[in-house]
Amino acid sequence: MKKFFLLLFIPFIFWGQKSIEQQVSKLSDGPYVFIEKNKLIEKNIKNGKVYTKILDPNKYDTIFYPDKSTFSKVRKIVALSDIHGQYELAIELLKNNKIIDKKLNWNFGKGHLVIVGDIFDRGDKINEILWLIYKLEIQAKNKGGHVHFLMGNHEYMVLQKDLRYIHKKYKLSSKLLGLKYDELYSDHTVIGRWLRSKSTIIEINNNVFVHGGISEEFIIKNGVDLEKLNMMMRKHIDLPKKEMKSTDIYNLYYGQKGLVWYRGYFKKYFEMYKEYLTDQDISKILNLINSDHIVVGHCSHDEIVQLYNNKIFGVDSSIKKGEYGEVLFIKNNRFFKNNRFFRGDLNGKLTEFYKNKSKKNNKLLFLFLITLVALYFLYYAKEHYSRKQIN
């Protein structure tokens, strides 16, 4: 009887093996650039075969220094998060909002682009996005701009060997390259070292950017020195999650009120945290960190959202689904001496966020009065000129 059932399953086993072989034969991935002593070794997978070549040792930097955590006097900022390997959609979104040009080069001048975490996991074009951001970072710097790639929970998960959410493609790539997936981004790779230099929380003008959020409890326990917080997050980045569980460090990376996991600003998580935050509570947090706005990812929405009268912005617009996405534009308005916030949709159309209707009406009234004054001066100038002609 056992032999009979075994015979029944043999065709399925054979079909499964054949299916895997077909997937491997179509697989292309890379480049992965490894650092071995004074050599750079590039590995690519094309149609299921691994190709290796030695690169000029000066082709890529191998030493990356952490960036500062605070920036000021930035006229324009654009932010998005949770790309999760959706390369084509991210390209379309960045192109249509004029952040990059048709050739995928930097097109945002002296502006700052902030990716608020989570390029890793779920999707199948992680590496392509990482290399694009790597390139844009260099190009932006040369144009007086800046690219900030902040670490999200999924970046930390992969680097700390939690590989539950990687796409099946990367399981095959890892086997072909003879390495575990996290080793493709180890400290012995160019992208791996680059990642380890990244920040988790930054402030630009009066806007704080962080993947999950920053809670009052976290501030009381860890302080508000952003440089120190980023240093703390980088320090133990290579300590596996299992080893962390026996230390206090675990809560820093994986605690529900940590910088990359916190969800407490959003009503649907109030019960989970047993916190029911009000506008006053958010104002208190902002006062503690000496900022006016917090921009977060991590919690998915159908579009960019604002909460607490423009104090909190959620920029996870569900790009991970591969169907739609948005960016948040922040323009530093010198005339009004404040920030203006806009949603940039997939077609590049901008829609402004207003604090409330009265503010919108006040601005419209102000513009109306300016128009009236301008018309009066035009009329006066015309009359004055006419009289002068008669005389």
Give the proportion of residues in helices.
25-40%
Class by alpha and beta content: alpha/beta
Q: What's the average pLDDT? A: 90
**Biggest sheet record:** 6 strands, mixed
Spatial extent as radius of gyration? 26 Å
Indicate how many domains the architecture comprises: 2
Low-confidence runs: 14-18
Q: Could you give the distance between the termini?
A: 119 Å
Sequence of strands across the biggest β-sheet: 4-8-9-10-12-11
**What is the CATH top level name of the largest domain?**
Alpha Beta
CATH architecture assignment name of the largest domain: 4-Layer Sandwich
CATH topology of the largest domain: Purple Acid Phosphatase, chain A, domain 2
For CATH, the homologous superfamily of the largest domain is named as Metallo-dependent phosphatases
Question: How would you describe the overall organization of this protein?
Answer:
Strand 2 (39-46) and strand 3 (49-55) form a beta hairpin. It is globular, with a radius of gyration of 26 Å. With 391 residues, it is of the alpha/beta class. The protein folds into two domains: 70-355, 4-Layer Sandwich (Purple Acid Phosphatase, chain A, domain 2); 359-391. It has helices at 2-25, 87-96, 126-142, 153-159, 168-177, 190-196, 216-222, 226-235, 241-244, 249-254, 270-273, 279-288, 357-390; strands spanning 29-36, 39-46, 49-55, 70-71, 76-80, 112-115, 146-149, 201-204, 207-210, 293-296, 305-307, 312-314, 327-333, 338-344, 350-353. The strands form three sheets. It has a six-stranded mixed sheet with strand order 4-8-9-10-12-11. The N and C termini lie far apart (119 Å).
